[in-house]
Design a protein that fits this description.
Elements (H helix, E strand, L loop, with lengths): L3 E3 L5 E3 L2 H10 L4 H14 L4 E2 H12 L8 H5 L1 H6 L8 H10 L3 E11 L4 E10 L5 E7 L10 H17 L5 E6 L5 H10 L2 E3 L9 H8 L11 H9 L13 H8 L3 H15 L1
Helix pairs in contact: 1-2, 2-3, 7-8
Length: 275
């Protein structure tokens, strides 16, 4: 009997074992490990299983991979990004750090700029170090699985860009950054008007997840933190997990109120993720 998967938006699609393998490999699993996990998940699947349940089964299987302990954490990247807003981590501040670790110099976050018609608050102002082009960056964050960023957000971003440049040539280009997939309409429209899209899985070889993985820029929400610990990290302005390896733990313990032994264990989690 064919197995169909129910997606977060309610649509159905045939179960694809290769997708499970690919997500495991993207998290850092070897091909052998990925194939073993995919077979294990397939054996537990049934017609009408939800993508959420498959996700849980993959996570459970990854937990038994003691030779690759960071796999389970890395597999949770998309979920971890969706946890940022409710935990008090501003997505635009995270985008700033991702851009700065790659090809951009960030000039401002949350700055107000006068357009021809109205004043706009720009999420991020960034300059490409190679081309020297100045970007107006609009950040669109979602914390609900299954939602895709649609044409409305793309149109909104372009309208802002046009109004700003009617007043003065403030920006050379526009960019829409989101933690979700985007619709086909967004890709069609953005290609037409010259809008750069940075989203989950787009561009295909340079999507947001690839930029994060390439530099190890995993958010602290990837760690197994309690609510009080998340609040402490947020108040300290601490967003990137690997930055925990560079702090003086005794001072950071005093600053956050998190016990030194707990911080040491969190450091070990980070090391496992970065392997």
């Amino acid at each position: 009997m064919a197995i169909h998967v129910v997606k977060a938006d309610g649509s159905r699609a045939p179960f694809d074992i290769n997708k499970v393998k690919a997500t495991c490999i993207r998290a850092g699993a070897s091909k052998v490990t990925a194939a073993r996990i995919a077979r294990s998940v397939l054996d537990q699947c049934y017609d009408g299983i939800s993508t959420k349940e498959i996700y849980r089964k993959v996570l459970a299987a990854l937990a038994f991979e003691t030779d690759e302990p960071g796999l389970q954490h890395r597999y949770r990247l998309k979920e971890s990004l969706m946890l940022m807003g409710p935990a008090g981590f501003a997505f635009e501040s995270y985008v700033r750090q991702v851009l700065e670790h790659h090809d951009y110099a960030v000039e401002a976050v949350g700055v107000k700029v006068k357009g021809k018609c109205v004043e706009h608050e720009i999420d991020v102002v960034a300059v490409n170090r190679e081309s020297s082009e100045k970007y107006m960056v609009e950040c669109k964050y979602h914390n609900t699985p299954g939602i895709r960023t649609g044409l409305k957000e793309s149109l909104y971003t372009h309208a802002r860009f046009l109004d700003l440049n009617e007043a003065s040539r403030s920006f050379d280009r526009e960019m829409l950054v989101t933690n979700t997939n985007v619709t086909d309409e967004v890709l069609q429209y953005s290609a037409c008007v010259g809008q750069l899209i940075l989203s989950w899985r787009h561009p295909r070889d340079r999507g947001l997840e690839k930029m994060i993985e390439e530099k190890g820029l995993y958010p602290v929400t990837m760690l197994r933190l309690t609510r009080s610990e998340l609040a402490a990290f947020s108040q300290a302005g601490f967003m990137i997990a690997k930055d925990l390896l560079d702090v003086q733990l005794d001072q950071f313990s005093i600053q956050t109120g998190i016990p030194l032994t707990r911080l040491s264990r969190l450091q070990e989690q980070v090391r496992q993720i970065l392997r």
